[in-house]
Amino acid sequence: MKLTDADVVVVGAGLAGLSCARHLTNHSVPFIVLEADTRIGGRLKTDVLDGFLLNHGFQVLQTAYPEARRQLDYHRLELKAFAPGAIIRVAGKFKRISDPRRRPRDSWSSLTAPVGTLTDRLRMIRMASSARRGSVSSLFQSPDMTTLEFLQSRGISEKMVERFFKPFFGGVCLVPAIQASSNVFKYVLRVFAEGDVALPGQGMGAIARQLAEDLPEATIRTGTRVESIHPGGAVLTSGQTLKCRAVVLATDGPETLRLLGKSASMVSQGELCLYFAAPIAPINDPYLILNGEGTGVINSITVPSVVATSYAPAGEALISVVLIGHLALDDKTAESLVRKELTEWFGSVVEKWRHLKTYRIPHALPAQPPPIPDPTVPAKPMKPGIYVCGEYQSVPGIQWALLSGRHAAEALIKEPAEIPESIAATQRNDIR
């Protein structure tokens, strides 16, 4: 089937591209979304394997994201929340740290956990309270530095940094040494304090599917790779050229640079995610488990089936293990090292765990060194007729992918509709 010309060509059907398409739909702007993969969603995909739901890497939805609240129907996503806090593996034991405001019954265990001092806990509360004050824009316009420098400036002890903040923030931003932007860190504190960390009942892929539900029929073409772009058109690998008024690049960072013809490299953070099936869950509470030991390859563990029972068949548990970096490890070596470490944590029961799949994600998140631009400010077109959106433009996360897509749509809608004559005659046609 041949693709027709369109007013707008959106390259990429991840969250940013789908968000852009939704807003173009709301303003009756004809478009076509081209996705190189066979499925929509970008990194937010979910596989079904032997009755288990496997997200592509560690992915969660922060319910406090304003743009997610605006664009998504949380009820239909069947969201299930993690407990507000984390379990830290430290000194050979598991210690629970919870938000005392939302989980007061865990206050004593949190206070006595050998993770940091009481002063550290009080300073954490003050940091979270401060991060919630003012607008999000003002937060990102404050002086930026590395997260490590920020924590040190707030008097957080080295023990607290090593045992809690490195694995916690490292798991969020995939930066082991917490060298990411302090403003990103403060925003993370803000949304953690204001909402829940949740999983959709049918996997993270359900978010992309919901975004695509209301798009006009046949406006998304998967398995269609764009070879090059230029103002007024896009060339497919098939050789076909599509004419358009505007091109929106909603691809990942490396692919966007390629299509823009830029030779500069983009630093990104990689992730290995290993899934195991177990007859019994290693924990019964919906907590994130962090490695505070300072040794080993594991950064964090979750048991998605404890958070949402739909993630595993009845009578089984699903365990997710995340390694930050370590992309040089082959799958066999990674599994061997992880099993050895898990056995130290949970005992010989790990021998009964069945390895399901390993996901290797080289560009899981863009690097986030300071200074980070204010993500609430719409990005300008890269050149006339070419717009770029995606979380790598500013701050990683579902919030910023969705917002950047909306910003791109709003920007091109405001531009004069200088549509080539060849498009004007067919601009509202579907794919034929």
Ordered list of secondary-structure elements with their pairings:
Layout: E1 8-11, H1 15-26, E2 31-34, E3 46-49, E4 52-55, E5 61-62, H2 66-71, H3 74-77, E6 80-81, E7 85-90, E8 93-98, H4 107-112, H5 118-132, H6 136-140, H7 147-153, H8 158-173, H9 182-194, E9 197-199, H10 205-212, E10 220-221, E11 226-230, E12 233-236, E13 241-243, E14 246-249, H11 253-259, E15 268-278, E16 288-291, E17 300-302, H12 304-307, E18 317-324, H13 331-346, E19 354-366, E20 386-388, H14 398-414, H15 421-424
Parallel strand pairs: 1-2, 1-14, 2-10, 7-16, 14-20
Antiparallel strand pairs: 3-4, 5-9, 6-9, 7-8, 11-12, 12-13, 15-18, 15-19, 16-17, 17-18
Helix pairs in contact: 1-10, 1-14, 5-9, 7-9
Short description:
This protein has three domains: 8-44 and 204-265 and 373-424, FAD/NAD(P)-binding domain, CATH 3.50.50; 46-80 and 199-203 and 268-366, Alpha-Beta Complex (Polyamine Oxidase, Chain A, domain 2), CATH 3.90.660; 83-195, no CATH class. The protein contains 15 helices and 20 strands.
- CATH C-level name of the largest domain: Alpha Beta
Query: Helix count, per DSSP?
Result: 15
Report the C-alpha radius of gyration, rounded: 22 Å
Poorly predicted spans: 418-432
Shape: globular
**Main sheet summary:** 7 strands, mixed
**What's the number of structural domains?**
3
Share in helix: 25-40%
Which second-level CATH architecture of the largest domain applies?
A: 3-Layer(bba) Sandwich
User: Alpha-carbon distance between the termini?
Assistant: 6 Å
Q: What topology, given as strand order, has the largest sheet?
A: 8-7-16-17-18-15-19
Q: Which structural class best describes the helix and strand composition? A: alpha/beta
